[in-house]
Amino acid sequence: MAMAIGMKLAGRAGGAAMATPPATIRSISSWWRNVEPAAKDPILGVTEAFLADRSPDKVNVGVGAYRDDNGKPVVLDCVREAERRIVGNQNMEYLPMGGSLKFIEETLKLAYGSESEFIKEKRIAAVQALSGTGACRLFADFQRRFRANSQIYIPVPTWSNHHNIWRDAQVPQRTFRYYHPESRGLDFSSLLEDVKNTPSGSFFLLHACAHNPTGVDPTEEQWREISNQFKVKNHFAFFDMAYQGFASGDPERDAKAIRIFLEDGHLIGCAQSYAKNMGLYGQRIGCLSILCEDELQAVAVKSQLQQIARPMYSNPPVHGALLVSTILGDPELKTLWLKEVKGMADRIIGMRTTLRERLEKLGSSISWEHITNQIGMFCFSGMTPEQVDRLTNEFHIYMTRNGRISMAGVTTGNVDYLAGAIHEVTKS
Amino acid sequence: MSTAGLCLSFAFPSVSSRSQKYCKVSEIGSSAFSGNVTIWNANRISKIKYSGPKKTRISASASQFDAITMAPPDPILGVSEAFKADTNDLKLNLGVGAYRTEELQPYVLNVVKKAEALLLEKAENKEYLPIEGLAGFNKVTAELIFGVDSSVLMEGRVATVQGLSGTGSLRLAAAFIQRYFPGAKALISAPTWGNHKNIFNDAGVPWSEYRYYDQKTVGLDFDGMIEDIKAAPTGSFIVLHGCAHNPTGIDPTPEQWHAIADVIQEKDHIPFFDVAYQGFASGDLDTDASSVRLFASCGLELLVAQSYSKNLGLYAERVGAINVVCSSADAALRVRSQIKRIARAMYSNPPVHGARIVANVVGDPMLFGEWKAEMELMAGRIKKVRQALFDCLSAKDKSGKDWSFILRQIGMFSFTGLNKSQSDNMTEKWHVYMTKDGRISLAGLSLAKTEYLADAIIDSFHNVS
User: Fold this and answer.
1) CB within 8 A of A24, min separation 6: which ones?
2) Which residue of A16, A305, B85, B258 shows the fewest CB atoms closer than 10 Å?
3) What is the C-alpha separation between B37 and B17, in angstroms, rounded?
4) A 270-329 residues with CB below 8 A of B?
């Protein structure tokens, strides 16, 4: 026994490196032979390809990250100020599993309304999440755990990562009709039909505003009808709101669909992201909320969401949460933010107008109305994958192959080139 | 609101099994809690109090989640929440493994402050990182664990993906195992960090335990460990703590690591290292990486999860990495691409801030040197407190019990050998918060409180069964 302890203590006697390994090196036979190379992510892979391109004319209208009129990424002034305020004066202790309470409080106000009775009554189960993706994934896992027999109804088309999320959460997916290719608008009658024909109590994924990738949103009247139909069918509405503020420039307006559903008494779920509207892409800061019947239930639901988060990442990152609460918690900074969000939205709206004008001036026989009808960061151009490939190969213009153009990447500097290229590949 | 009725003894998933028992909420804590934690007591049922009259609202639908019951508090993170709620002056938090100064304050490393100031100056943008994370970070983190001159790095055989600290990195690996080695088992030590089981459970990877802690010697059950690793089905993933085993503080000796590597090779198992305390065990970053480097130099393919929560104090920034050492550069590329897919569906890409701090500190020779010095100080303080606790216990305990196991343990924690009731006594009588497995975090102990702690331990050990 003493020997054993002696050996242990000897081993402990600091700093001694391990003895050299035995001469026989294990014969290399890889465990990972059956691991295929994964396909590139259709969205993030575009940026990778863009970065690798050496052409001076190259244009990136792929990923939905805002760019200023010089094509440069933007850090908002309100964010820079918040950064200055928080640097050096915070310890970095773990947040609670559910994230920063202050952050959650401010975030819920944005989605549910600052005077929302649901917030006052503490009926919302909410946790800080890893941006929109993380919020959707938490919900998908939660759905799987507590509604094991349910499926998720996803609009066609949708952000491609929605499919990955619910698939990895092992929730079967169904689709409902959404986009009308001929008009490049909303296929409203089919949407309603699908809502009516799904079994009662189905789970639906809805884009709260600025639908990605189409930019096609229901009108207010249409939202009311959808909400009504949901009531009749007792469906669950899960809103993915990644662009609040970015659609119209006014966050309150962009939350309209959610407010309609709340007024109608729906107990919704909601994913929120600050990636775009606060430019905090890399911070991974968002929120998942689920409106419950009462406080008791909200507490229980929140505790279960935390159970899902704990074995995924334990607790969420603090930096983005601090930035957001600093900004939204200070009236001056919040006002500045609102101004900057409107500025970003306005620039995009301006580029929509310009792109459409240029195409029309070039004498395109196609209708490009949809460019200005659609809203938010994206324009669903209606181009085919082959046309998109031509844009990339011949013109060094990068976008996703579904023809989605990120208007945030369009500038006064490249709009003519872009219009010319689009006209070239679509005129025949 | 007093917490006299606080009862933490039920419905905790025990360290050795994952209980599916969820408690019904019977009482909600009021705003005395800074968190929104709820405390309940199975023995007292009381109605929840609302803040005001409830508006009658005709819901469009009854909730889909009606039947959802309250999840139990996390056995580790829940301890801090309970501690916060305690109003007693003597309270001591030895729960979560977060470093504290002698004044029991959280500690932001000087190098981190410098790195953050640098970042502020640089005013970089906040664009999405690539799915695999910050390239500069991935480079230095792999170098830190494998060694700058390591052949596995020179040969490009390591797939490194930035993850959300240790937990997130482990989870990526677990999901990868489930996808590519369906049915393969993970073997975890008995005991181990409580969240390991949750991670494998949620990833859908079956697991079992290998003997590790020997209660009789309060040391390593080496023979049991070897036996159990040998008995596991070929191609099992053996989870090993690279250094400073959590919760026991008991590490294998270099000779024992050799033997473990041999038997793993023999059985064609895959070592899966969890390195959460590099630098915190011995005080030296390279020494603490010895076990991993030994295995890598043997030519084994292996996984290593890293965390910067403790050694750089970046707890809340969630910075870590998963590394997969492969037999070829090609395999490493393929493996990395698949781990990226898993990450994409979980959170798309990792948070940037912490990664930049690490890249700045570890990648800059001057800051790196300063970090090493701070690391030594932190580990040094823990060693000092460890010694002081041993001295106090030996002096005060007249029973002749041998407390020297405390000195043999290493890292942030000490496994006291206290059982659940005794641990409860620590909390209820002495307001010392710790985990139910008898683990105390020495990082949360000051020299000033060592005597008090010794009294508490002696009382709990001898007077409670």
Assistant:
1) none
2) A16
3) 23
4) 275, 279-284, 290, 292-297, 299-304, 306-308, 310-320
Tally A–B CB contacts below 8 A.
351
Q: Which two tokens stand for residue B77?
A: 């993170």
Q: What is the pLDDT of residues A297-308, one digit of tens each?
A: 999 999 999 999
Task: Tell me the whole-structure pTM to 2 decimals.
Answer: 0.87
Instruction: Encode pLDDT of B61-102 as tens digits.
Output: 566 777 778 888 777 777 888 898 999 999 999 997 889 999
Q: Is A159 a catalytic residue?
A: yes
Structure tokens at A405: 């153009």
Q: What is the 3-state secondary structure (H, E, C) of B269-330?
A: CEEEEEECCCCCCCCCHHHHCHHHHHHHHCCCCEEEEEECCCCCCCHHHCCEEEEEECCCHH
Q: Sign of torsion, CA B225 B245 B266 B294?
A: negative
- Asked if B115 and B367 count as a contact pair (C-beta separation under 8 A), the reply is yes
Q: Closest partner residue to A88 among B116, B342, B353, by Cβ?
A: B116
The string of pLDDT tens digits covering residues B212-255 is 999 888 899 999 999 999 999 999 999 999 999 999 999 999 99
**Cα separation, A307 vs A316, whole angstroms:** 13
What distance in Å separates the CA atoms of residue B311 and residue B460, rounded to the nearest whole number? 32
Mean pLDDT throughout A139-155?
96
Q: How many CA atoms lie within 13 A of B275 on its CB side?
A: 31
Q: pLDDT tens digit string along A161-185? A: 999 999 999 999 999 999 999 999 9
User: DSSP characters for A140-187?
Assistant: HHHHHHH-TT--EEEEES--HHHHHHHHHTT--EEEEE-EETTTTEE-
Contact A317, A96 (CB under 8 A): no
Is position A276 annotated as part of the catalytic site? yes
Q: What are phi and psi of B284, to 5 degrees?
A: -115, 125
User: Does residue A37 have a cis peptide bond before it, meaning omega lies within 30 degrees of 0?
Assistant: no
List all residues of chain A from 345 to 384 with a beta carbon under 8 Å from chain B. Answer: none
- Whole-angstrom distance, CA of residue B74 vs CA of residue B81: 10
Share of chain A above pLDDT 90, in %: 84
B81 touches chain A (CB under 8 A): yes
The distance of A365 to chain B (nearest Cα, Å) reads: 38
Q: How confident is the model at residue A35 (pLDDT cuts 50, 70, 90)?
A: confident
Reading the block at residue B349, the tokens are 């890409």
Do the chains contact at B348 and A304, CB–CB below 8 Å?
Answer: no
Q: Which helix (H) or strand (E) holds B244?
A: none
